[in-house]
Amino acid sequence: MESLYTLIEMVVKNIVVVLVLMGCVAYTTLLERKLLGRLQVRLGPNRVGPFGLLQPIADGVKSFFKEDIIPDEADKTLYVLAPGISLFAALSMFAVIPFGDTVTFLGRQIKLVVADLDTGLLYLLALATLGEYGVVLGGWASGNKYGVLGALRAAAQMISYEVALGLAVIGTIILAGSLNLRDIVSAQEGMWFVIKYPAGFLFYLVAGLAEINRTPFDMPESESELACGFNIEYSSMKFATFMIAEYAHMFTIAAIVTTLFLGGWMGPWLPGPIWFLIKVFCVIFFFIWERGTYPRLRYDHIMQFGWKVLLPLTLLNVVVTAALVAMGVL
Amino acid sequence: MIGIGIGFKWFIFVVAALVATGSSLMMVTRKNPIHSALWLIVTFFSVAILYVLLNATFIAVAQIMVYAGAIMMLVLFVIMLIHLEWGAQWKRRLSFAKLIGGVVTILLFLQVLAGVFTYSDAGQKGVYSAQKLAEIGNTRAVGTLLYGKYVFAFEIASILLLVGIVGAVLLAKKRKD
User: Fold this and answer.
1) Angle formed at CA A110 by CA A89 and CA A180, multiple of 5 degrees
2) Residue A190: enclosing H or E segment and its boundaries?
3) Which of A45, A104, A139, A225 would bridge A150 by S-S if both were Cys, CB 3.0 to 4.6 A apart?
4) What is the reported pLDDT for B1?
5) What is the nearest CA distance from A26 to chain B, expressed in angstroms?
6) In whole angstroms, what is the distance from residue A9 CA to residue B25 CA?
7) Which residues in chain A are contacts of B58 at CB distance < 8 A?
8) Which of B85, B76, B64, B66 is nearest to A154 (CA)?
9) What is the pTM of this model?
10) Could you tell me if B148 and B156 are in contact, meaning their C-beta atoms sit under 8 angstroms apart?
């Protein structure tokens, strides 16, 4: 009987998390378009529904009814598989992120996280690399020069920034003494890691932006030189799947920043999940604001910055943080 | 209840082992190198599942992160960069390299086969049982061993990698003259 309850709990948690995540992702696209509009002194979408609130639904319906084209040159299996890989990685990353403390429901203690993994942080890093396969394979399988160029750029960028991303979180692991994300959040009781360890926060934000291919690091799909890059041949729902995966990935990175550095679900008065969502949307607001502010970097500059600046700095950061913790300063 | 658990574990083991064997066969028989690389990723994944079944969560995640993630991405990058997918044609000719490779493979296979039939691990118990791992945490156990008992081997391995990196940089560097 107990195992049956556990099964029901798991299924319900999965469904709720995926639905809420998808809802948030849909409205993040609207938020991005609205905010970018405001940053460029225009209104953004405001025709569909009050304040354009039905725009994401209209977009979804539209892309669902568009013609689905598979190019002749394409590697058919991989071409179909690629958007799925992207979406799978972005969604399953969210499984280990705790969005609240435990709640008691019908006499059962329920942890507000889908999977409470001991190696949660490593799991996140591992799946992040998998998500990039969607982009790389999608670009290659299209059989298009621009697509292949986008795929190559995505692969090179991922290899370069993945290292910095991993090194940036090592400081958090040292401070919290655990890889479990719930333990990391609990370790921030009283003082968030963003105050205690601001360097790691900055490094993670920069490397995270490169990870989700956003401006100023949106090399794989830079419109002005690659005409959309890796997703150039994609149409209809496959294109929409790539878009959903991209925004889900962005939401997940924002959630990881919240968990690792901004105290996760913790906060006064309001319940945990509400605080979690508020913090996540603050980070997403930053991502959009930054996109409206900075121009795209040149490709060789991105590579130089990654290997010659970010990597040595993050390495130094690991040594210094470990020394400070060992001396008892932090 | 325990019976169901063990049965389920056994089921997962059989599926993962079959997928690992099948995908490695697919890997060596594909003509397109990109497809080979992708089947290798599938192999790495199923091996990672086997690690999880052995209570080695850290090794499993490290396997996915390092091999299935970073290294295979590098392999894909190189294949795409030099356009191997259109250039490389499978030649049916028997060459000296293929002969040596075949002989070495057969020898290795015989060695593994002999090992499977003569050596048995059953009944032996190490220091780190499943209960102890759950108590102190998998990552902590690996870390303690790696930086304690095996620190010498660990440092030797890192120096070996460093030599590799220095060599690669030296090769890639332009000559002055």
Assistant:
1) 50
2) none
3) A139
4) 47
5) 29
6) 39
7) 119, 122
8) B76
9) 0.84
10) no
Residue B81 contacts A, CB cutoff 8 Å: yes
ipTM of the complex: 0.80
pLDDT band (50, 70, 90) for residue B15: very high
**A176 in helix, strand or coil?**
helix
Integer angstrom CA distances of residue A154 from A194, A224, A300: 29, 16, 13
Write out the H or E segment, with its range, that includes residue A258: helix A236-261
* pLDDT tens-digit series, residues A46-96: 888 788 788 888 888 888 888 888 888 778 888 888 888 888 888 888 888
What is the amino acid identity at position A77? T
Give the minimum alpha-carbon distance from B144 to chain A in angstroms, rounded to a whole number: 14
- CA nearest to A287, candidates A68, A29, A98: A29
A198-211 vs A236-261: helix crossing angle, rounded to 10: 170
Q: How far apart are CA B38 and CA B35, in angstroms?
A: 5
DSSP H stretches of helix in B56-150 = 57-62, 72-81, 84-87, 96-118, 130-136, 138-147
Tell me which residue has tokens 């598989």.
Answer: A81
Would you call A126 and B77 a contact, using CB atoms and an 8 Å cutoff?
Answer: no
Asked if B50 has any chain A CB less than 8 Å from its own CB, the reply is no
Give the nearest partner residue to B73 out of A119, A126, A132, using CB atoms: A132
B138 touches chain A (CB under 8 A): yes
Q: Answer whether B136 touches A (CB < 8 Å).
A: no
CB A261 within 8 A of CB A201: yes
Minimum-distance CB partner of A151 among B57, B80, B137: B80
Length of chain A: 330
Q: What are the residue ranges spanned by the domains of chain B? A: 1-88
- For B137, name the nearest residue in chain A, comparing CA atoms only: A118
Residue to test with chain B: of A7, A130, A132, A152, most B Cβ within 10 A: A130
The verdict on a CB contact (< 8 Å) between B65 and A179 is: no
Over the stretch B60-77, which tens digit does the pLDDT of each residue have? 888 888 888 888 888 888
Which listed CATH number (1.20.120.1200, 3.40.50.150, 3.40.50.300, 3.90.79.10) goes with B1-88? 1.20.120.1200
Which of A130, A140, A151 faces B69 most closely, judged by CB atoms? A130
Q: What phi, psi does A328 have (nearest 5°)? A: 85, 15
d(CA A83, CA A243): 9
Cβ count within 10 A of residue B161: 10
Count A/B contacts: CB-CB distance under 8 Å.
Answer: 65
Q: Shortest CA distance to A193 belongs to which of A204, A205, A201, A181? A: A201
**Upstream peptide bond of A216 is cis (omega within 30 degrees of 0):** yes
Q: Using one digit for the tens of pLDDT, what is the confidence trace for A6-19?
A: 888 888 888 988 89
Residue B80 to residue A140, Cβ atoms within 8 A: yes
